[in-house]
Amino acid sequence: MATLGIPEDVLRNEVLIKKLEEIAKDAALMNGILMRTKETPNASEVVGFAPFTLFPSPVPRALFQQALAVQVHYNLLVDKISQDPAFLEEALTSTIKVDEFTAKLFNIHRQVLKEGHAQSIVLGLNRSDYMLDQGEDGGTSLKQIEINTIAASFGGLSSRTPDVHRHILKVADRLEEQEKILDNNPAAGLAKGLAKAWELYGSEKAVVMFLVEDVQRNIFDHRYVENELWSRNIPVIRRQFEDVSRTGSLDQNKRLFVDGKEVAVVYFRNGYMPQNYTHPQSWDVRLMMERSLAVKCPDIGTHLAGTKKVQQELARSGVLERFFPDQPDVVAQIRATFAGLYTLDMGAEGDKTVAMALAKPDNYVLKPQREGGGNNIYGQDICQVLEGMTEGSERTAYILMDKIRPCPVQNYLLRPGADLKLSTCLSELGVFGVYVRQGKEMVMNECVGHLLRTKSSEHDDGGVAAGVAVLDNPLLV
């Protein structure tokens, strides 16, 4: 058990912890670490603090800096993949035969390619997620879990957590640790990318449209980014698929109008799961937006670039070199973050992967082509899923990945209405990237901040919105 970071005597000082608990909750509310507490559209008055750790969690400085440094290369990689229809077709051919959701996305991709892209401006707001894998030799390495190319969340709330932990540590008289809390403002960085795309679109009257769900518990995470845009005098509207279906249209120049307002940027905070497409016309709306002159974040090619199958294909020998020819240093930096990834395509290689998984299921994670957390399959459940497939080709909707084994730490997880107890925890580091390309020119390519999420070690999967992980800050050691 790692003891770096907050000392054991502080963690087990019951009088101090009780005092800090109330202070921490108040600090979270005062600093705007907020989440709706009920699933209702009119819940603005039903608000509590978003779950978070009492103390920041230790993260090795070298690995943290490695994650930040490689982000600009991941930005370029995602963009290059989105512009390579041959690679996307090759990578996803088997998946789209058995995964209806990915197939529908890919059909839109094909239609847009056939018609031609109306807009040359591309905006990417992504988040690359990592865990710190502890090897048998005791060494620790940075390993990528996934890259989120659509609706990458918690840039807003993670901009507010540093001040909360600074205040907690000051009250606890841990001034040395307090000084190590990093400034972090992904909300401003994400808004900077949105603002640049809006500016390049070239119409001061046009709006940025957040495409959202009917009920959004994580509304305040959106609002921090939205408010950054309003502070730049960039108008923002929030609409659902149904709203765009009812009032949206394209003019003869493919400009997108919703409720009579010209849309410069469509920012997808919805549309990454099958259940987001609640009506058949939702898919028609997605196609209309993709065909439009509006800048899409992400466009359909970038959305597909974030699929798990593409992630697995990138781990094959020679594939990264396809996108970064004559750049061995870049290839090495990206490849150093890869965990073991294995195909489940039909054939000898896929058969070998199945045998590996069935023989030692605790060593792997079975991952479907889904975003949003809570979808991965672990342990003996892997055997049940693979053995329960009535047709062998069903397996091609998944990939297999080595299970990462991070070093556990001790911390307290604060949740509304839950008793506070010292827990054995695991953390996941996310790094936010922003890029804007116009034609062939990369106008912006930046790493704009980080996110640390921590959960009890008893849970295999699930994020903050799913009620499993909580917000955290890295304490560099």
What is the element layout, followed by pairings?
Blueprint: H1 8-11, H2 14-30, E1 34-36, E2 47-49, E3 52-53, E4 57-59, H3 61-82, H4 85-96, H5 100-115, E5 121-134, E6 140-148, H6 161-171, H7 175-178, H8 186-201, E7 207-211, H9 219-231, E8 236-239, H10 241-247, E9 248-250, E10 256-258, E11 261-268, H11 280-291, E12 295-297, H12 300-305, H13 308-314, H14 319-323, H15 328-335, E13 341-342, H16 348-359, E14 364-368, E15 377-378, H17 380-387, E16 398-402, E17 409-414, E18 422-438, E19 441-456, E20 470-472, E21 474-476
Parallel strand pairs: 4-21, 7-8, 7-11, 11-12
Antiparallel strand pairs: 1-2, 3-17, 5-6, 5-18, 9-10, 10-11, 13-16, 14-15, 14-16, 17-18, 18-19, 19-20
Helix pairs in contact: 2-6, 4-5, 5-11, 8-9, 10-11
Low-confidence stretches: none
The gross shape turns out to be globular
Mean pLDDT metric: 94
Total count of strands? 21
| Main sheet characteristics | 7 strands, antiparallel
Question: Would you kindly provide a written description of the structure presented here, covering whatever features stand out?
Answer:
- By secondary structure, this protein is of the alpha+beta class.
- Helix content is 38%, strand content 25%.
- The chain is built from 17 helices and 21 strands.
- It has helices at residues 8-11, 14-30, 61-82, 85-96, 100-115, 161-171, 175-178, 186-201, 219-231, 241-247, 280-291, 300-305, 308-314, 319-323, 328-335, 348-359, 380-387; strands at residues 34-36, 47-49, 52-53, 57-59, 121-134, 140-148, 207-211, 236-239, 248-250, 256-258, 261-268, 295-297, 341-342, 364-368, 377-378, 398-402, 409-414, 422-438, 441-456, 470-472, 474-476.
- The strands form 5 sheets. Strands 3, 5, 6, 17, 18, 19 and 20 form a 7-stranded antiparallel beta sheet that branches. Strands 7, 8, 9, 10, 11 and 12 form a 6-stranded mixed beta sheet that branches. A 4-stranded antiparallel beta sheet has the order 13-16-14-15, with helices on both faces.
- Helix 11 links the parallel strand 11 and strand 12 (295-297).
- Helix 2 packs antiparallel against helix 6 (161-171), helix 4 (85-96) runs antiparallel to helix 5 and helix 10 (241-247) packs across helix 11 (280-291).
- The longest helix is centred in the N-terminal third of the chain and has 22 residues, at 61-82.
- The chain is globular.
- The two termini are 15 Å apart.
